[in-house]
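In this supplementary section we document a worked example of the pipeline. Step one takes a protein sequence of length 66 as its only input; no multiple sequence alignment statistics are reported here. Step two produces a three-dimensional model, which step three serialises into structure tokens for compact storage. The input and output of this example are shown verbatim.
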Amino acid sequence: MIQMISNDAFGDRRVANNVRYVPGTSGPADVGALHRFPAAGIRFMPITHGPGAVYMAAGSSLASSR
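The serialised model returned by step three reads:
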């Protein structure tokens, strides 16, 4: 059985949903996923305020209908 780590699943779901930008805060737990983003064509936008990243993601999805 092939095991998938959470970073792979996190990146795969974004690719499957055609996500191009991911705003958020980065920390030690996110490093694995952030290294996979460039190969998948996803741009990470570092935001220093966590709730601001949530509003940014929600507004972007509503504006783009995705």
